Automatic annotation (TrEMBL):
UniProt keywords, alphabetically: Endonuclease, Hydrolase, Nuclease
Protein name per the record: Endonuclease-reverse transcriptase
Protein's organism: Plakobranchus ocellatus
One Gene Ontology term of the molecular function aspect: endonuclease activity
Domain of life: Eukaryota
Length: 133
């Protein structure tokens, strides 16, 4: 999980992380891969929910709030407001876009504005963690 604050998590990456997390749970519970158990029953046996993605998103959101309040070079790089041309082809997903979707903030500008008020930002993060991924 070291450095996960800077990861951009696409849908494909999220599926891979969830599959890996499920594999870990099955190994810890010693459930054979030939056993016909659904992921839901494995999660019930483990008395847990999917933790990995929500923990990564929470760490990303707290780091993002910290960077946005500092208003330095990291702020410009994270928001993508640097001068110059963008490369051709399909554009990569930005960290702020993934966080805005997770926080259900609508547009990324709403998430950026919410970081200015630390109490409001922490409330948004807590609500997103409660709702899950």
């Amino acid at each position: 999980m070291y450095g996960c604050e800077a990861w951009t998590i696409s849908k494909q990456t999220q599926k891979k992380l969830e599959a890996t997390e499920m594999w870990f749970l099955r190994r810890m519970l010693r459930i054979s891969w030939t056993a016909k158990k659904t992921n839901d029953t494995v999660l019930e046996e483990a008395h847990t929910t999917r933790l990995l993605i929500s923990k990564i998103r929470k760490r990303q959101a707290t780091y993002f709030g910290h960077v946005m309040r500092r208003e330095k070079l990291e702020n410009l790089v994270t928001t993508g407001m640097l001068e110059g041309k963008r490369s051709g082809g399909k554009q990569r997903e930005k960290l702020i876009e993934g966080l805005a979707d997770w926080l259900k903030a609508g547009k990324s500008l709403e998430a950026i504005e919410a970081t200015k008020d630390r109490k409001k930002w922490r409330t948004m993060i807590a609500n997103a963690v409660k709702q899950g991924t």
